[in-house]
Every structure is written in C-alpha cells, then in structure tokens.
Write a structure and sequence with these properties.
seven-stranded mixed beta sheet; 12 strands; 2 domains; binds pyridoxal-5'-phosphate
C-alpha cells in the first residue's frame, strides 16, 4: 500500500505503540489510586505531560488532555464564548476552519451569537486586515487555525494576536494547531494565543488522544463535571496508554524535527514537479505552505472517481475532508476557484516516511487513469 493521506491520520510509530502496550499491560494503575502501583502511573503521567508540553512549548499545567482534536476545538470555542458572556457575543472565525470549529460556532449562532466568517483568497490565504476590520468591542472569540488541513496554507495567527492587542479587544484567541503541531515551529506564547488544540493521531500517536493548551491564568469552565482529573477541568480517568504513546511519539519526532521537515518538503516538491510535468492538464491548487500538505486538481476527472481508482491500485490519497456527492468541500469552495477545478481536487499529504518513489507511483497511476478515460471517450 502507498499511503499519501497523512493529514487524515498517520501510522503509529513503533516506539509509541510499544509505550501504549507497556502502559496497558504493566503500568496500568489508575493514577488516582493511593497505593504504589497507582503512584507509579501518576508519576508516568506527570513525565508524559511534561514531554508533550515541551513539544507544544508550554508549561505542563497549561496542557489538558482530551480525547481528540474535535473535543479540544469544541471545548475551546464554547468555553471562550462563555468566558466573554458579559462583554459580548460576537465571534470571528474563517470560512476554511475544520468542522470541529465551524459546527460548535454554528450551534452558538443558533443560541444568539453573531459570527463573522473571514474568507480566503483563491490560494487559501486569510488577510489579517480583514480580521482587524471585523473586530468589534463585543468580539469575545477569534478562532483561526494555524495550518489548513486541505490546502496546507498557513494562517496569520501571530498577526491576528497583534491585531487583537492593537484594537484593545477583549477577544480570546484560539488556534486549531492540529495540522501544525510538530510540522511548523511555534509556541503558544510566541503566537500570542490563549487556547490551542492538538491531536495525537496526526503525529504518529494513536487515535483517541489530543490536548488543549489553556494559557496560564485564564479561568475557563470545565468541559465535564466529575472527579478532579486534569485540574478538575476535564475529569475522567486519564487514558494513560494513549498519553504515554503521544508523549513517546513527540519524543521520537523532536530530535529529527528539522530533518523530517526537510524530507517532507523535498518529497512534496518532487511530487508537484512530476505531477506538473506528466499531466500538463493538471492544476496545482495549493502547493501548501506547510511541509506536508498540497492539493492538486485534474479538471474533468471527478475526485471521487480518482480516489476510487487509485485505491484499486493500492494508493491512498484524499479528495478533501468533505468532498462528496459531486460537491467540493467548504474549504475548496471558499477559494472561489472554477467549479471544474474544484471537482477534480486531490489532497496529497506526507509523513517523514513518504518517499519520492511513492510519488512517482502516484503520478504514473494518475497518468494511466487519465489516458484510459480519454481513450474510452
Ligand atoms: N482540526 C483539524 C485542522 C483537523 O485536520 C482535524 C482532523 O482531521 C481535526 C481538527 C479533528 O481532529 P480529531 O480527528 O483528532 O478529532
């Protein structure tokens, strides 16, 4: 199998899988138990939190484990609006956020919040001037992702923080950093955000684990009510195996971070060059600012057909996270590019394991599929 859909999920690295197995079969105590086996689990949890916090670039007490990126995004959006309820009910976000941000915001709009959606240009870039113009005295939340999951574009989060400060706005700034974590350098403090979401399964940890960064000093409402875990803000017995795996995946990635980034950029550029050379009718929709995501299109060849035919040849790529039933995803649609281009979009996304040979096989398969279609016409 050739797997080039690493923005959807990644293969768990062997070190992380081993750490999860050990945590499940040996260090399986409940960190809240008072005897030594529980204390050992609590100690391991403390070390794992410190490791993930170091990878995020925050203090351990600023990191709250969640079950996934979706949970972190939902919690951040709802809690930020609740936090600002005495100051206003205006939210600013972008039209190209993940549904994990857009859907809770849509629900809040149904409950009386006003929402401004910033629109991207045709390359998927968001203007910070548009954000500055949209800020109002009653804006309580700005939610802007750091890397878009379908286009690989980088959004101006740092500049957004500066604009919020310059306007003297009370708005909290949340960023969904699910696709950025470990792939582009940042710390929450240098970005100037109050809230930041990550998810484990995009960085070679298993599914079922994520985290929300909450800036120290910011008091938010708990997501759930229950025991005192995660400082009482996200109670529930900690998923120690997933947490151990996430910490181990971070520790395995960090020493190679620059080399991994360089490799993914090289492989992505190799793919884009061979795609353009072999398929002159093809369009590069987004070369991606992030090292691991790009989007291309073959106008006239529907994405769903391409994904199916590639799958038959053992190649996995995506048609974009919500491109189905002949409709482009909300992200691609928001770029306003011609419909024919949007209906033939493929997202190709890389991991540090991806190779130039895999890209060659993908381009060869696409060339075959296109020529078979032309001769059948
Ligand atoms: N945000 C972005 C940008 C994503 O790409 C994803 C997953 O694709 C999510 C949020 C949701 O994360 P999870 O799958 O961990 O719920």
């Amino acid at each position: 199998m050739i797997y080039l859909d690493n923005a959807a999920t990644t293969r768990v690295c062997p070190e992380a899988a081993q750490a999860a197995l050990t945590a499940m079969t040996e260090g399986f105590g409940n960190p809240s138990s008072r005897y030594a086996h529980g204390a050992a689990a609590a100690e391991r949890l403390r070390a794992d939190r410190a490791a993930v916090a170091a990878a995020v670039g925050c203090l351990p007490e600023e990191l709250f484990f969640t079950s996934c990126g979706t949970e972190g995004d939902n919690w951040a959006v709802r809690a930020a609006v609740e936090h600002g309820r005495r100051k206003g009910r205006h939210i600013i976000t972008t039209a190209i956020e993940h549904t994990a941000v857009l859907e809770p915001i849509r629900a809040l709009a149904g409950e009386g919040c006003e929402v401004t959606y910033l629109r991207p240009d045709r390359h998927g870039h968001i203007s910070v001037d548009d954000l500055a113009a949209a800020l109002r005295p009653d804006t309580v939340l700005v939610s802007m992702m750091l890397v878009n999951n379908e286009l690989g574009t980088l959004l101006p989060v740092r500049e957004a923080a500066a604009a919020i400060r310059a306007a003297g706005s009370p708005a909290l700034l949340h960023t969904d950093a699910v696709q950025a974590f470990l792939k582009v350098p940042f710390t929450p403090r240098d970005l100037g955000v109050d809230l930041l979401t990550i998810s484990g399964h995009k960085v070679r940890a298993p599914k079922g684990i994520g985290a929300l960064y909450i800036r120290k000093g910011l008091k938010l409402k708990p997501l759930l009510l229950g025991g005192g875990q995660e400082s009482g803000l996200r109670p529930g017995t900690e998923p120690t195996a997933q947490i151990a795996a996430l910490a181990t995946a971070c520790n395995a990635w960090l020493p190679h971070r620059e080399a991994y980034t360089d490799r993914m950029v090289q492989v992505k550029n190799h793919f884009l060059d061979s795609f353009s050379a072999a398929l002159p009718q093809g369009v590069v929709v987004s070369p991606g600012d992030a090292p691991h995501i790009c989007a291309v299109s073959l106008p006239g060849y529907p994405s769903e057909m391409l994904v199916r035919e590639l799958s038959d040849r053992g190649i996995c790529v995506s048609s974009g996270s919500a491109c189905h039933r002949g409709k482009p995803s909300h992200v691609f649609a928001a770029t306003g590019r011609p419909k024919g281009e949007l209906l033939g979009v493929l997202r190709v996304s890389f991991s540090p394991e991806s190779t130039a040979e895999e890209c060659d096989a993908l381009v060869e398969a696409l060339t075959e599929i296109c020529s078979a279609r032309v001769s059948a016409r």
